[in-house]
Design brief:
The complex is a heterodimer of chains A (137) and B (787).
Chain A: E1 6-10, H1 14-26, E2 32-36, H2 39-46, E3 55-58, H3 67-76, E4 85-89, H4 94-103, E5 107-110, H5 115-131
Parallel strand pairs in A: 1-2, 1-3, 3-4, 4-5
Helix pairs in contact in A: 1-5, 3-4
Chain B: H1 2-44, H2 49-64, E1 69-73, E2 79-82, H3 84-90, H4 101-104, H5 110-123, E3 125-134, E4 140-151, E5 157-166, H6 168-190, E6 194-199, E7 204-208, H7 210-216, H8 220-224, H9 228-231, H10 234-249, E8 254-262, E9 268-279, E10 285-294, H11 296-318, E11 322-327, E12 332-335, H12 337-342, H13 357-364, H14 371-384, E13 388-394, E14 400-410, E15 413-423, H15 425-447, E16 451-456, E17 461-464, H16 466-472, H17 476-479, H18 484-487, H19 491-505, E18 510-517, E19 523-534, E20 540-549, H20 551-636, E21 646-649, H21 650-660, E22 667-671, E23 677-680, H22 682-698, E24 705-713, E25 717-724, H23 754-764, E26 768-774, E27 778-786
Parallel strand pairs in B: 22-24
Antiparallel strand pairs in B: 1-2, 1-5, 3-4, 4-5, 6-7, 6-10, 8-9, 9-10, 11-12, 11-15, 13-14, 14-15, 16-17, 16-20, 18-19, 19-20, 21-23, 24-25, 25-27, 26-27
The chains are: A alpha/beta (137), B alpha+beta (787).
């Protein structure tokens, strides 16, 4: 049975957000999506401890607070550190990947170029997480 | 002496004996005659009575003329008659006073005399009665008497007659002879010389003294069973035999020989034997007297002497110095091979013996630089007769000789002189070249860029070169004999030098560098290497320091370090930048890709076939653009980071690649199982093979494609090969294909960076890449990677 998830998508590129929403609507997803254009905004959203998401999807290349900086803040927070965070990025940089796993992530998804490939990949990630047992912090 | 004496005595004795025998014969004749006559008389009795007086007078005449003493006595010993000889013998004239012979007999002989007399009466005669008498004048005499009884015509014994002879002298002579023989025996037996007497021609020994039997170890009885040849050493038998034969034939009277005898125990006895033949009266060789003298010791000593002489001779012969010995008349006594060699004389040194040395000198003077000086010098030396050692002589051909002159004298008498010549050319030249070398090296040292300083064990400066002065800023006379530690004012340096000195004393060398502000206030960085300095006997006498001014090098080094640091930083920044750029470049592509696919999805039906085709083409171009960005990123991020090295199984990687990349069905990929494990970065190795294999796949134009990946193992490297049967490459492009953005084909996936990445990876691993290709047939890429 598919769970309804609350997902925080942190993405600065509007087209990427559009791609994400288009795929979700295409598969008639019931998941609740919270959008944040950058890390600052995301932190603001996460400050409301009563309405925390089940999953965070995080882009690495962002202005102001970039993905890795955001991840560090997250993992240093006694509550937020429990939130599973999956990286959603175009970077195949080994250094970034290593750094992310070191800080603590729940997944690392490289966004393929082709929209169809991206769509397939994203559906798999979402269905995985909706099948997963989650905790409420 | 004793020989003559014995001979004389013998002669005397013989004469005496002959005379006595003659006398006795005579007497017996007369006795017989007279007895006959007495008997006749008795028988004729009275008729012939008158003849008696006549006969008596005849008889008297006879015994009066006897040479021996004749005595007629009655049975009581009273002399009835005696002749003149008897009168002299008994020193008594019986006509003047009666004489009883019994009274003259020596008291000790009394008993014997009475016995003898009884015997006479019984037998009628008694011969060789010997008794001592003592005459009236007290002379003791030994008499030998032959006597018989006298009977009257009736057969009555009326007296006895006897012929007496004074044997005193004879007996004493005999005794003397006996004594002499005894003495002779003593002499013979105690003589250290063996004496043997043999009879006849052969080995019939009749006497051998103790010395001889002792020498040979045989008893005389054993000797008698042996022959001379059996006693002689086999090697000496012929020599001995020849001489003995000559002796036998009478060709010689005596011979002397040194020969070896074999003792009973088998030992060898060296002996000097003299054999004399002794003629008997009829001149036939009858006796041989041989004296044998043990000279074994002498022989051994002689042999030893000979050995020593031989050794000395060979020593001189093989001496490395030329030797020539002259006697007082300047004739060559001895010389050697080296002499002939040095003076270029043909022939053997033995041939020089006996030659007049000045002649040789004159013949060889031409080899000297100053022949006249050479001769004058020799003459002067001989005149002075004083030992002179080490005269130097130069030869025309450049050789240098050293000569010793040693006069020789025996018992203060001049006996000649010894010359020795040594070829010292080599050592002289050696010394000379040593000096040149020394000069040259000291020049080098003086002008060396390296500072050089020599210290004694107390760290006092013994010498220093120009560069040292330049580095330290001191003047030479300021620092000589100064303690080097006091010249450097900074505490740190002082400590450093002291610390090193300790280990230098243990014979170790060390190098160290330090900063140093010199006398003229320049900051210098110096590299000092110090080593202990040893004398010839291996004792440490100080140390030698070599100082290199590395101020400039140090400056460069720190500059280089700074640059490297900067470069590293730049590299990191650049890589970051590349990622950011690639992300920023890729994002719009991604958006274009998404937007075009939505365009196709949402408005496809309005676009028509031509429109959709264009949208697809946009998609393809976008994909190619993305590959290009990825490749550039890859290419720029290849570096040699050894921390990422691991054991990479190339067989596994190549296998994985063959499954990962798209391989059309008509292409077969053969992978050798020999592909090894190499030490490298796994991602790079994968990139390397993936690019080569993708290329191979992309450029195959044959119906049946074949790609084989193989390896050849060398001592220090592996040579991998990737072979295809594709379109091949023209020779002029062999090097161009490795340049960035150079793509030969029009393959849609080609970015022109693949082989550049391969080349860069190979370069990073200090490997080599090359290819063999034939257009239309195929291409083989070779990659050599070091083990």
């Amino acid at each position: 049975m598919q769970k309804k998830l609350t997902i925080l998508l942190i993405e600065d590129d509007q087209i990427e957000v559009m791609k994400f929403n288009r795929i979700l609507s295409k598969i008639n997803s019931q998941h609740k999506i919270i959008e944040a254009n950058n890390g600052e905004e995301a932190l603001k959203i996460l400050s409301d401890k009563d309405n925390l998401p089940n999953l965070i999807l995080l882009d690495l290349n962002m202005p102001k607070i970039n993905g890795i900086e955001f991840l560090k803040i997250l993992k240093n927070d006694s509550v937020l550190k429990y939130l599973p965070t999956v990286i959603l990025t175009t970077s195949t940089n080994q250094k970034d990947m290593l750094e992310c796993y070191k800080i603590g992530i729940a997944g690392y998804m490289v966004k393929p170029l082709k929209y169809e490939d991206y769509q397939n990949k994203l559906i798999k990630v979402l269905s995985y997480w909706s099948a997963n047992e989650l905790i409420t912090v | 002496m004793s020989d003559i004496l014995i001979e004389d005595l013998k002669k005397a004795l013989e004469q005496e004996r002959a005379a006595r025998i003659a006398a006795e014969e005579k007497l017996n004749k007369y006795i017989e005659n007279s007895e006959g006559r007495v008997n006749d008389l008795t028988e004729l009795n009275k008729s012939l009575q008158e003849d008696l007086t006549q006969k008596e007078s005849e008889f008297r005449g006879i015994f009066e003329n006897l040479n021996d003493a004749y005595v007629l006595i009655d049975l009581k010993g009273n002399v009835l008659k005696m002749n003149d000889v008897a009168t002299v013998m008994f020193e008594h004239d019986y006509t003047k006073s009666p004489l009883n012979l019994m009274k003259l007999v020596h008291p000790n002989d009394h008993k014997y005399t009475i016995e003898a007399f009884k015997n006479l009466l019984k037998e009628g005669f008694y011969t060789k009665y010997r008794s001592r008498i003592i005459t009236k004048n007290n002379n003791a005499k030994l008499l030998e008497v032959n006597c018989s009884l006298i009977k009257d015509k009736d057969g009555q014994i009326i007296g006895a007659q006897g012929i007496a002879r004074d044997v005193t002298e004879e007996v004493s002579l005999q005794r003397l002879l006996k004594e002499q023989k005894h003495q002779l025996d003593i002499i013979l037996d105690n003589s250290p010389i063996g004496i043997v007497l043999s009879e006849g021609a052969d080995d019939n020994f009749i006497f051998a003294n103790k010395s001889l039997t002792n020498m040979l170890g045989y008893t005389f009885e054993e000797m008698k069973t042996l022959k001379v040849s059996q006693l002689t050493h086999p090697d000496d038998r012929l020599r001995s035999k020849t001489l003995r034969d000559k002796l036998e034939k009478g060709e010689i009277k005596r011979f002397s020989i040194e020969k070896r005898y074999i003792k009973k125990n088998g030992d060898i006895l060296w002996a000097k034997t003299i054999v004399n033949s002794v003629d008997n009266s009829d001149k036939k060789v009858k006796f041989r007297v041989a004296t044998v003298e043990d000279i074994t010791e002498n022989k051994l000593a002689q042999q030893r002497l000979l050995e020593i002489e031989n050794r000395l001779t060979s020593l001189i012969a093989n001496l490395d110095s030329a030797v020539i010995l002259e006697d007082e008349s300047r004739e060559v006594v001895i010389s050697n091979k080296k002499f002939c060699e040095i003076f270029s004389l043909t022939g053997f040194p033995e041939e020089l013996k006996g030659k007049f040395y000045p002649e040789i000198v004159d013949n060889t003077k031409a080899i000297f630089e100053k022949p006249e000086y050479y001769i004058n010098r020799i003459n002067k030396l001989i005149k002075d007769k004083k030992m002179v050692l080490g005269d130097e002589l130069r030869l025309v051909d450049g050789r240098i000789l050293e000569r010793d002159y040693i006069p020789i004298s025996k018992d203060k008498e001049y006996k000649g002189h010894l010359w020795t010549y040594r070829d010292v050319t080599l050592s002289r030249n050696y010394r000379k070249s040593l000096e040149t070398h020394k000069k040259r090296y000291s020049n080098i040292i003086a002008n060396l860029k390296l500072g050089l300083v020599e210290l004694d064990n107390e760290n006092r400066i013994l010498s220093a070169n120009k560069s040292f002065m330049k580095m330290t800023g001191f003047e030479e006379d300021e620092i000589l004999t100064q303690d080097i530690r006091e010249l450097f004012t900074k505490d740190m340096i002082k400590n450093l030098i002291q610390q090193r000195s300790v280990s230098r004393k243990e014979g170790r060398t060390g190098s160290y560098e330090f900063k140093f502000i010199n006398k003229i206030n320049q900051e210098k960085v110096l590299l000092v290497s110090a080593a202990p300095n040893f004398n010839i006997s291996g004792e440490i006498i100080g140390s030698i320091g070599i100082i290199l001014d590395i101020t400039h090098i140090k400056k460069l080094e720190s500059q280089k370090e700074e640059l490297l640091k900067q470069l590293e930083q730049r590299n990191i920044e650049l890589e970051e930048y590349a990622h950011v750029v690639s992300h920023d470049l890729k994002s719009p592509l991604r958006s274009i890709s998404a937007l075009t696919s939505w365009l196709k999805e949402d408005y496809g039906r309005f676009l028509g076939n031509g429109g959709i085709q264009n949208v697809d083409m946009i998609q393809e171009v976008v994909e190619k653009m993305e590959r290009l960005i990825n490749d550039i990123l890859n290419y720029s991020s290849i570096n040699n980071d050894e921390s990422t090295y691991e054991d990479v199984n190339t067989f596994k990687i190549v296998n994985d690649i063959s499954k990962l990349i798209y391989v059309p069905k008509h292409i077969e990929i053969k992978i050798s199982e020999k592909l090894p494990i190499v030490r490298a970065n796994k991602v790079r190795i994968q990139q390397l093979f993936q690019n080569l294999m993708s290329n191979a796949v992309n450029y195959i134009d044959k119906e049946k494609g074949l790609i084989s990946i193989d390896v050849k193992e060398k001592k220090k490297s592996y040579i991998f090969s990737v072979q295809d049967n594709g379109i091949g490459i023209k020779k002029e492009y062999y090097s161009k294909i490795f340049e960035v953005f150079q793509s030969l084909g029009n393959h849609k996936k080609s970015t022109g960076i693949g082989l550049s990445i391969v080349k860069k990876i190979v370069d990073v691993y200090n490997g080599k890449i090359w290819l063999e290709s034939q257009e239309g047939v195929g291409t083989t890429f070779f990659i050599q990677l070091n083990k």
